[in-house]
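Hi R.,

As promised on Friday, here is the backbone we talked about, encoded as C-alpha cells. Could you run it through your design pipeline when you get a chance and send me back a sequence?
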C-alpha cells in the first residue's frame, strides 16, 4: 500500500531527488509488475545516480568502548556527508518524512552487517528516544521512522516502551569528548517490565562518539537486558563535513 501511495505521489507531485534536485522519473507502468518489484527499482526521494553513489560508500562495524560506560557493538552504514547529509537534514528540519523510505534501505544493510558479528534473531529494535520536549517540537522521532521498515522487513519487533530520555540533552556533536559523556549521563531510563531478559538492538540516525548509545545500553543492561548492540544509518567522520547545523 505504501509503495502504491509513493508511486502516485511521485507521479502527481513531480518529486525531486533530495540530494541533487534532479526530477525523479517514475515508471508507473512498472508498478503493474507488483509493489515489491516496483519498490526494488524505484526510489521515492533519491535518483538512481545518488542512490548508487551511496551504495559505494564504506560501512563501519566497531566496538564502542568508552571508559565507565557499557561497551557495545555498532554497525553503521554510511559516512555522514554528501547526499546522505542533505537527506537527513530534509528529514529532521524540513519534516520530509518520505526520505525514510529510501534511507531505511541502508539501515537494513547495517542490520545485515551487525548480524555477522552479533545476535539479531529474536531481538527487539529500540529507537533512541527523544526527550518529550524535542518530540513535541519535531512531531516525530527520526530513529523510530527509520527503524519501522527495517523491523517490518526482518520480522523483528520494535518497541518504544523500553527506554525514555528523562533529561533534555544538548546536541552531542558540538561537545568535547568528556562533555559528551557528562551530557548523556543519567539521561535515559529503562523500563524493567519490558526489557528484562531481552536482547536489544538500539537504532539511531547518527553515530558520533557513541556516548549516547552507551548511555542507553547502560540503562537497559541495568534493568535486566541480556545484550545490547546498535545500528545507525550514518557515522560522523571528522574529515567529511562535520555536524548538522543547529536550528
Ligand atoms: Zn540525485
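Update: got your reply. Pasting your designed sequence below so it's all in one thread:
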Amino acid at each position: 500500500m505504501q509503495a502504491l501511495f509513493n508511486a502516485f505521489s511521485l507521479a502527481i507531485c513531480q518529486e525531486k531527488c533530495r540530494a541533487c534536485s534532479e526530477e525523479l522519473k517514475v515508471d508507473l507502468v512498472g508498478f503493474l509488475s507488483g509493489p515489491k518489484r516496483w519498490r526494488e527499482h524505484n526510489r521515492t526521494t533519491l535518483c538512481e545516480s545518488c542512490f548508487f553513489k551511496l551504495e559505494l560508500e564504506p560501512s563501519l562495524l566497531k566496538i564502542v568502548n568508552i571508559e565507565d560506560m557499557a561497551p557495545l557493538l555498532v554497525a553503521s552504514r554510511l559516512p555522514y556527508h554528501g547526499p546522505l547529509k542533505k537527506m537527513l537534514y530534509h528529514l529532521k528540519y524540513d519534516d520530509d518524512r518520505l526520505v525514510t523510505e529510501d534511507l531505511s534501505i541502508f539501515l537494513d544493510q547495517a542490520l545485515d552487517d551487525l548480524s555477522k558479528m552479533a545476535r539479531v534473531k529474536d531481538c527487539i529494535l529500540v529507537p533512541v528516544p527523544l526527550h518529550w520536549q524535542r518530540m513535541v517540537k519535531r512531531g516525530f522521532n527520526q530513529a523510530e521512522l527509520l527503524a519501522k521498515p527495517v523491523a517490518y522487513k526482518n520480522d523483528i519487533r520494535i518497541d518504544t516502551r523500553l527506554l525514555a530520555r528523562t533529561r533534555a540533552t544538548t546536541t552531542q556533536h558540538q561537545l568535547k569528548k568528556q562533555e559528551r559523556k557528562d551530557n548523556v549521563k543519567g539521561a535515559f531510563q529503562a523500563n524493567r517490565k519490558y526489557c528484562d531478559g531481552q536482547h536489544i538492538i538500539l537504532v539511531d540516525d547518527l553515530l558520533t562518539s557513541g556516548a549516547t548509545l552507551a548511555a542507553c545500553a547502560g540503562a537497559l543492561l541495568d534493568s535486566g537486558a541480556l545484550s545490547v548492540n546498535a545500528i545507525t544509518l550514518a557515522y560522523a567522520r571528522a574529515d567529511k563535513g562535520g555536524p548538522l547545523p543547529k536550528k
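One thing I noticed while checking it: The chain has two domains: 2-42, 57-240.

Thanks again,
M.
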